Amino acid sequence: MSFEIIGGSFTLDRTGLFTQTDRYAFPTSDGSLPDEAESFGAAYEESSFSVDESGAFWVGEYRATDAQGLISEELDFSMHEEPIQSHPNFLTEGTGIAAVYKYDSASNSFAKTKPDGSPNPLYGCTSYLAMTATFRKQQTVGNLDEVSGLFDNISKIDDPNADLIDIPTITWRNWLKLTPKVTSRAGVFEVSEAWMLSGAGGWNSKIYA
Amino acid sequence: MSLTDGSFLLGEKRSIDKTGLYKISRRAFFTSKAAAVTGTYREVGNEYDEALFVGAGGTGDEAGNWICTFNYEKVASSRDDNPSVDIGLVEELDFSSIQSPIQTSPNFATLVSTYGWDDATQSFPKKNSVGDDSPLYGTTDFLSYSCIYRQTQTFSEIPDSIFDHIGTIDDNVPFKKIRDPADSDERTWLYLAPKIASRGNAFQITQEWMLSGFGTGWIPEIYSQDSLSVLQTSNN
């Protein structure tokens, strides 16, 4: 095959994904794309071709990937509103939210005044601010078996499989393993795993165990 | 860095951002693509000047000359050359307007005494107490504001205390240069969950606190650690 290497480029990102682009020039006698240029790309993930302005060469760019063992992790949080009745301290006898702030079960609302007659700060309140966090781990591997427990415990209570961030145990919150995302990139796999932190009280073990 | 025969270092660039993240980029020349890729692969897991390798890039020309950039990251520390006193902490106060139910206004009792209130329909009547048209007829919300106090820093290790008290009232928000806008009133701060990202052998951490509305501050029966930890995960 008649061709000439005319350079290329590569990157290795922080998730371990190595991407390289090789550039070759293929001479053409009649302006058409040489068959060799197309068949040459079979060993690569993607290829693209363009003819130069002289019309004498087609330039082929071939992209390939590899995995190089770097891991990236992040912990991110989000806030949302939950019904006030779902708060773990709502029904605590004597000192719970319902008792202290005079919740009327018939109308499903707080009274205008507290039991002592003072204005009720929860009058009109229907929800409280709950927060959660998502731990994400991203890596690129050559074989999915390299990721321990990748498809285990999905949608179940599970501790994050963290390598870099040391996540302590919180006795009143726990983690739920979310669905992983796996993308094949020629010879490698980009893997993203995620775990979601529960609200106060933890994930319900009857549902998520 | 592994430099094979004919390869040599071209230079180095360093930067420290305002959160204290120290970045080092080293440029090297290689005589072939194979040497450049091998040099890159060998750098995985290595450190340079105590900064961990986090990635690389390279370009080659038609003559086979390859120029590569190797990137490393760590936390800036007092051992680094001339770090300014500003390095290592970014503070922000971020205000935003929000609509809240009119019943939650701290002045609701005054509004009710002036304009009346229909408990059955949970709304203001058409006429106020002296028979004039009520300007609040149809009003269901009022414009309040929220404020987030944010600290972003780079650490070599994640502080143990960073996961304590997530989602609870914090009476000791660690303001540095910014003054607490609620230090002279009854408003309180809620500690939100932190955001953590690995950066080389360091961690970039953002912590946030949310200011309560005017009135009583965050309600302890909802947002204290005792209230939130009533139900332990082992019992759920």
- The stretches of 5 or more residues of chain A where confidence is low (pLDDT under 50) are none
Quaternary structure classification: heterodimer
Mean pLDDT of chain A: 89
How are helices and strands ordered from N to C of chain A?
Answer: EEHEEEHEEEEEEH
Strand content of chain B: 35-45%
Helices and strands of chain B, in order, run as: EEHEEEEHEEEEEHH
Q: Which two chains touch over the largest interface?
A: A-B, 68 and 56 residues
Rg for CA atoms of chain A: 29 Å
Spatial gap, N to C terminus of chain A: 60 Å
Provide a count of the helices of chain B: 4
Overall number of domains of chain A: 2
Distance between the termini of chain B: 52 Å
Count of all domains of chain B: 2
- What class would the helix/strand composition of chain B place it in? mainly beta
Tally of strands of chain A = 11
Keywords:
heterodimer, A: 209 residues, mainly beta, four-stranded antiparallel sheet, 3 helices, B: 236 residues, 2 domains, six-stranded antiparallel sheet, five-stranded antiparallel sheet, 4 helices, 11% helix, elongated
